[in-house]
Design brief:
Methylamine Dehydrogenase, Chain H, four-stranded antiparallel β-sheet, 471 residues, ten-stranded antiparallel β-sheet, globular, mainly beta
Amino acid sequence: MTEKQVDSPQKSDTGRRNLWLLGGGLVLLAVVSVCFLTSAVVAGGLVLRRIVANVQITDRGRLEIPATPLSGEDAPGVPDTGSGRIAVVTPDGGLVTLRPDGNDLRDLGSPGVRSQFPAWSSSGAQVAVIASDGTQTAVQVLDDSATPDATELYASAINPPFYLYWSPDDRQVSFLANDRNTIALWLAAADGQAPARKIAAGQPFYWEWTADSRQLLVHIGGLGAESRLAFIDADGNAVGDNLATPGLFQAPGIAPDGRYLAFSQVAGEQFEVAVQETRSGAQSTTRQLGLAAMSWSPAGNQLAFISPARQRLTHVGPLQIIDAATGATRTLADGQVIAFFWSPDGKSIATLTENSGHSTPGAALPREFTSAGRANSQQTSEVLLDLAIVDVASGQSRTLASFRPTDPFLSQFLPYFDQYALSHRIWSPASDALVLPMVDDRGQPGIFVVSQEGGAPRRIADGVVAFWSWQ
């Protein structure tokens, strides 16, 4: 594999995008039309319309984690799990998969091609990836094997794709791509036997597949008359009526058994998180004071969400749980939760917060945003995060690690964690460990496995992002 520059096809040539820390929490600058990975081609360069800001951290510390892999008895706290495989984007843009112990590495990449945000099929047999060779950006499906076959589903030099999500039956790959002055949702047969089809357009754009892979629940647009919260058929021929007037949120949710939906809606002059029974239309609601980011338990009808405790244009805030059957709401974790991820067994939730051992960062609002959605002034900075595990039944929490995340994880994955949680997994299939991209004590990016039982994170590979297979 030839050496390649790490860069994102969504990334402008103005430099790295950053998140904005304010008042001890990670605050995403959100305007009425909060955008999910909204892209535009500006001045000959592709620029993401992202939430961007300056970050300053005082009393900066470094994460002292091993710079070299540990193995066997030298790796305390690492679960003895053979479950699943992990897809890794290497620092030079390559793509590899390997076992959780770091062995059985398979190189799925190609020379001169940069890979991004690989997504596993539910069977674990294939990986879909966004691949760029410098002239065009494509959606490819690769067999996870020693001699992978690549199937190209879509490619464009003008309207590059930037996010992808398998259908539950593994027959289709849905993805977003630039589309003139907006973005479009495409569906492509995973075997490449039929051309990709554009079925909807608008920005921002979030969705979840139904379990039977026949429909998608979409949230298109911000606030206003053009916003949509409706089901669309996978063939693109039918669009349902709006379920509600969409409020301040990103990805909608469908309970595992399909009985309930979750979204934010406008209620008079305020917003509320709504859990709606699909047959009767009955709702239970909880008032929200800012944005809301939500996710259903994989194992039951419990909805977790975060939203600020006071009026702020961010989703960062306490973690709460709604019991869909009773409508009862309880707080599971106080504080400024940036993102959260359900374990596959539904017993635990992993949370990410700003590292509590450092002083509150000074924060400055970004200067005026350009029409491309980027800040005129940008500044890179180290951000330290705390990883904790919360027991859903008891509410007890344990901090497992404090770490500096890689830039793609911080600036591209975390702001949209609720959408990515539907398509990309950081938990092991056995719910006993997580995989995270960290910057080590030498400033090098690596992929680390963190056991839910505690112990030092174990480095298994060099890399900037990584995702666990579903089984």
